[in-house]
Amino acid sequence: MKSLRVEVNGREVEADVAPETLLVDLLRGPLGLTGTHVGCDTSQCGACTVLLDGQSVKSCTVLALQAQGARVTTVEGLAAADALHPVQEAFIACHGLQCGFCTPGMVMAATCLLSSNPRPSEDEIAQAIEGNLCRCTGYVNIVKAVQQAARTMAAGSGEASR
Fold first, then answer.
1. Which residues contact 125 (CB under 8 A, 6 or more apart)?
2. Interval 9-52: pLDDT, tens
3. Helices (DSSP H) in the chain: which residue ranges?
4. What's residue 112's pLDDT?
5. Mean pLDDT of the 61-75 span
6. To which H or E segment does residue 13 belong?
7. Quick one: pLDDT at residue 154?
8. Could you give the strand order of the β-sheet that contains 71-73, starting from the edge strand earlier in sequence?
9. 17: helix, coil or strand?
10. DSSP codes, 88-120
11. Rg of the chain in Å (alpha carbons)
């Protein structure tokens, strides 16, 4: 076992983990953050997407020890105590989810995109979520949700009026 120190959703976490422990297994197991889903275990589906130091990663391909000293944000860490994140709200409002299995990964990929590109084109949105598979929606409402979240976030920052 190796000692791991990592910040998860704004909280310092210390854990002893086996060297082969995947980040997704740490999150879902000892930390109880089950919003991060395990879909394929081969990095194909994107259901396990989280932010690692602000970058979108598939946590089924990251060893927990690779997150040593890093900041990890899961879908549970996006919402404030009293309100959902604008991306989460937009997925609900635009019906960007059906069964919900891919939703946490889609939300995290979209959040990463909007943090670096507050006004993405439809093509840029499609490119940002291309590693996240959905079997239910056909992606149209997911793209609409990301566009709505971008507008909401821009309006909240005063950028919409510029």
1. 110, 113, 143, 146, 147
2. 999 999 999 999 999 999 999 999 999 999 997 889 999 999 99
3. 23-28, 86-93, 103-116, 122-129, 140-157
4. 98
5. 98
6. strand 11-17
7. 95
8. 11-17, 2-8, 71-73, 49-52, 55-58
9. strand
10. HHHHHHTT--SS-SSHHHHHHHHHHHHHH-SS-
11. 16
Tokens at 19, concatenated = 């060297």
pLDDT at 161 (0 to 100): 43
Q: What is the pLDDT of residues 100-147, one digit of tens each?
A: 999 999 999 999 999 999 999 999 999 999 999 999 988 999 999 999
Q: Which amino acid is at 125?
A: I
**What is the number of residues in the chain?**
162
b vs e for 27-62, b when ≥16 Cβ sit within 10 Å of the residue's Cβ?
bbeebebebbbbbeeebebbbbbbbbeeebbbbbeb
- 86 in Cβ contact with 155 (< 8 Å): no
